[in-house]
Structure formats: C-alpha cells, structure tokens
Amino acid sequence: MIPSDHFTRFYNEVFKFLEAQGETVLEDYFLAISKNQEKHILELIETDGLAGMDAYWTHIKIEENCDLDITRDDEHLELRMNVCPSLSKVMDNDAEPMGRYCDHCAGWIGPIMDKTGYHLVYDVIDRKQPHCVMRIFKDEAKAKAAEREAVLPMRWPGCTRD
Which domain CATH number covers 9? Predict the structure, then answer.
C-alpha cells in the first residue's frame, strides 16, 4: 500500500498531467473517482442520509488523522477542515502543487450529492491554505444562501447551480 505521504504527492502530479490534457480529461478523472467512492458512501447516504455522511466522514477523520470538525443537524452537515492533511502533504514537497488541487474533493463529492438529492456547498476559501468548509444541505434554497457567503465556492462536473 502506498503511504498517504506519497499518495497525495502522486495525485498532485496526476492532476497536473490530466489538466495539461484538457479540462474534459480532468473532469472525467474526477467522475471516475466519484464513481469509485460510491462504493464507500452511496448506500450510507441512501439509507441514513446526513447521519450516514456523518458516520463516513467521522471514520475518515480518524483514519486520516484529520484536524476536522463535523457538525450536523436535521437540515445539513458541515465539515470544517482546519488543517487538510492532503493539501498539507502536497505543499510539503519539492514539486509545485497543482493550482487546483482542492478541486478533486468537490469533483468526487459533488456528483454523489447530486445523485442522492443533496446540495453541496464546497468553500475552498484559499487554494494555498490547507483548510476549507464543506456544507451539505437537504434544501436547495439553504444551499444557495450558504453559497453566497462562501469565499471560493467550488464547482464539479455536472454542477448545474449558477
């Protein structure tokens, strides 16, 4: 198994290579990641909704040793990544980080949320700082309101929100 220190750096180089091939190639790759991630989270969302998402990301928080705060109520889930381990490892590297490295998170999460009827607001805040806020809403109007407050909202392949 590749250690995460190496994996994220490898990912960074793959993203750079794919981006050089064109936006469609990069988006296709994000969609392939999303399709693969469905195996891990889709059933949890379909059966347990926001509670299933909470369970999934709580497991990830522990597994990846993330400095991550998760809050949930009846209407939404919020993940506040205080220090992203993935971007931190990419930045601690002799190779230049891909300028849009953070797009891969929204790139795989967004299509799953669209497929399950939830509404994602992914605020990267600053592409050069390893922190972000992801909010997932049941109600589209609440998502749109939250997105107006976002500093740097992300889009994903197939995103239809203005």
Answer: 3.30.1380
